[in-house]
Structures are given as structure tokens and as C-alpha cells.
Amino acid sequence: MDMQLTTACFLSIRYIPLLKETFKFPQSLGILGGKPGTSTYIAGVQEDRALYLDPHDVQMAVDIAPDNLEADTSSYHCSVVRDLALEQIDPSLAIGFYCRDKDDFDDFCSRASELAEKANGAPLFTVMQSVQPSKQMYKQDDGLCCCSGSSMANEDYDLDASGEAGEEWQIL
Q: What GO CC annotations are associated with the protein (predicted)?
């Protein structure tokens, strides 16, 4: 999920505890982001520091042959752990999650809901169960209106055998 967590140059401190918490999710793949103007892969956190890899570091290609089990794999590993203060992270970032099956996704949704409850009105993201199509907002001369999608063709809905809309999840 990509997000913009403030309009300023640095991350709002209200999001730091929430970002740290996402690394506890078993589905976490880390964060793509970093310092303003520099992309990094944030693989973890320790206290108030982000531990990251720089994808721009050039490594020598490793020649791996089936008959050579002694290939030099030293370039697969970092010799230095780089870190960055969490409050210095660029607010434009993407958080990665991987759910291997429905049970894993349900666990992710449960954890995401708990995280949203801890957010004091400013969640990183929310996950909600929806059985209705998304409502589109549009501006009309006398104010803001919404379109419920009733003019949409049936093939636009996820219908089950009874003709009812099936369960859908939306990550916001």
C-alpha cells in the first residue's frame, strides 16, 4: 500500500508507533521509502531507528554453477547495518504485506483493525468488509452528492449463487 503520511518533508511523529507496529505483523514485507530523494528498503526497526538496505548499492554478479558448491556468496550479505531515525523517513512510502491464504488474510485484517483502534483517529490504513459497491462522490451545484452505483450492470457486482453481492474486502 502506498501512502502519503503528511504534507511536510518528514513523517508525522503520530505515525511512528503505528509504523513500528506493522513490522510485528507476520505478513510484513517491510517498507519502501527512506530519506527524501533517496529510495531504500526498510527491513525492520529497532527502538526509534529504521534498519534499511540501499537497493542502489552495486554488487558483483555471482557465478553459480551446479558443479560449484563453493560459490562466493559474500555479496548476498551486508557488512554494515544502515539505520535512519524514524522521524526522518520521507512521508511518501509503501508498506508491503503478503498474505499466503485466506486464513493469513483474515489474521492480517484482524491485526490491521487492532492497529486502527490504536491510531487515535489517524490510522495508517483501514481494512473494512464491504457488501455494497463503492459509492462515487461527485460535485453538484448545490453540494456534494454520491452515486450508489445502482445504474451499474449486474456483471459489475460479485454475485453469489443467490444473486446477492458476495463479501468483498477493501483496504483504505
A: cytoplasm
Q: What is the DSSP letter of 108?
A: H
- Cell 448545490 locates to 142
Task: Determine the Cα–Cα distance for residues 149 and 157; give it in Å rounded to an integer.
Answer: 10
Task: Retrieve residue 136's grid coordinates.
Answer: 462515487
Q: Which of 48, 46, 44, 51 is nearest to 28 (CA)?
A: 44
Q: Which amino acid is at 36?
A: P
What is the mean pLDDT of each successive set of 10 residues along the chain, which is 172 residues long?
A: 58 87 97 84 94 82 77 77 89 93 96 93 84 50 43 38 49 52
| Predicted pLDDT at 57 | 75
Find the domain containing 31 and state its range. 2-99
Residue 147 lies in a domain: no
Q: Residue 122 falls within a domain, yes or no?
A: no
Count of the separate structural domains present in the chain: 1
